Amino acid sequence: SADQKLIRESWEKVNSSPIEHGLVLFTRLFDLDPDLLPLFQYNCRKFSTPQECLSSPEFLEHIRKVMLVIDAAVTHLENLQCLEEYLANLGKKHQAVGVKVESFSAVGESLLYMLEKCHGPAFNVNVREAWTKLYSIVVKAMSCGWDV
Ligand code: HEM
Q: Is the CB of 93 under 6 A from ligand 1?
């Protein structure tokens, strides 16, 4: 569909340097919600600043993982159902590390922010709408993993 074409085309540029763009996304996320910082702990150590987190190898690895999940969604646009079980399980893992479903709205805003930074005015209302829809499908699938 037209939406799928917009998504694929806009993802290509982002995915050519995923870590760089993931850093834009998470820098924005910590600006929007600094309380997410303490959820990232490696070897039980908390980061004292977003900068410290954003430069740690383990966190850069998380960025790589996030970008791979988005890439999988972009690859499976016509058949997102095949990711449902994986995403529900991923949601479960995030609940276990203390993430709230509500926090995924700030993640969505940060994703759109990163895409806009990457594409400038080419990131028009149609592209934004297409990404908003895709992201809401991903979040819906992940939220199936949360026990209430
Ligand atoms: C794992 C936190 C958003 C994908 C993790 C881990 C933490 C974490 C603490 C375990 C440590 C690690 O693997 O680095 C968060 C927080 C988020 C967030 C606080 C935002 C509120 C996302 C998003 C995605 C994602 C949006 C993808 C759409 C992953 C993946 C793993 C992971 C693939 C590895 C799971 C595994 O080990 O099987 N996350 N995450 N995360 N996260 Fe996130």
A: yes
